[in-house]
Amino acid sequence: MLGLAHGHRLLRYDARGNGLSQRDNVGLSFERWVSDLETVVDAAGFDRFPLVGISQAASVSIAYAARHPERVSHLIIYCGYARGLLQRDGDPDKLKHSLDLACSLVREGWGSDEESHRQFFTSQFIPDGTVEQQHALNELARVSATPAMAERFLIENANVNVVDLLGKVKAPTLVLHVRNDVRVPFALGQEIAAGIPGAKFITLDGRNHMLLPNEPAHRQFHNAVATFLGQKPVRGALPGTATITERVEGAVGSVERNWLIKVVVIFAALTGCVLFFMEMWKLLHGGH
């Protein structure tokens, strides 16, 4: 799923620009994902824009930035990787076994009411999340994709490799990675930063792959991105940390100035952007 923050609206498109994609029987391939992004950017009417790639969407962002240097003014990568599981260093048999285990869990229980199968993934995305947050993510995973689609998604991502494209990225680049990220190893973020000429790397505290509202990494992320884009650090409550009343009072005056509305954000249905998307939606719509 792709999302664009444009003016006062948060737009979501499928490959044809017609809103959210269906949860089953859709084409899955890395090239299709890049093509989807190209279509969404054209449909939204952006000429030149900052691009954010979160988790596995980082590889899509890197490919887009390498292919369209004239379109991307800034590239921001959060907890991403350039090489999927089967493309990484290590024992190939062990890596394949890890993928097979994940796929078996998806096949056996992704679509059931029993959360334990999905909890395997949720505990990697938000190990420090509350019971309510983990339950919400478990349920969101269930409704976002059928078991068959979720398995195909895992396999396609495991084979991603854009390392050869890193050196072709021309946009100023900021790479942020949580030091003890349970889902995507810290070294993979370092690899991206080392491969993109002039990229800046920032370490965030914590171990949650998905940013949670009240953890230190949340403000670190916002401040780092604001500074990178030449804006002042965000003052006061961040998205998801203010009360509804505070969001309503501050939304009208701040939304025009907020750097968030200037950023094109790539979202993937099964990765670390879901809570961030939900909180940004609340911010842009005054908590409603």
Name given to the CATH architecture of the domain at 2-84 and 168-284? 3-Layer(aba) Sandwich
- Number of extended strands: 7
The average pLDDT value, as a whole number, equals: 79
Strand and helix order: EEHEHEHHHHEHEHHEH
Overall structural class, as computed from helix and strand content, comes to alpha/beta
As for the CATH topology of the domain at 2-84 and 168-284, it is Rossmann fold
Please give the share of residues in helix: 40-55%
The biggest beta sheet, please? Answer: 7 strands, mixed
Please tell me about this protein's structure.
With 288 residues, the protein is α/β, with parallel strands linked by helices. It has a domain at 2-84 and 168-284: Alpha/Beta hydrolase fold, catalytic domain (Rossmann fold), CATH 3.40.50. The protein is 43% helix and 13% strand. The chain is built from ten helices and seven strands. The protein has helices at 30-44, 57-67, 92-109, 116-125, 131-144, 147-158, 186-195, 216-228, 244-254, 274-284; strands spanning 2-6, 9-13, 49-54, 72-78, 173-178, 200-204, 264-266. It has a seven-stranded mixed sheet with strand order 2-1-7-3-4-5-6, sandwiched between helices. Helix 1 (30-44) crosses helix 2. It is globular. The two termini are 22 Å apart. Mean pLDDT is 79; it is low at 1-21, 243-249 and 251-288.
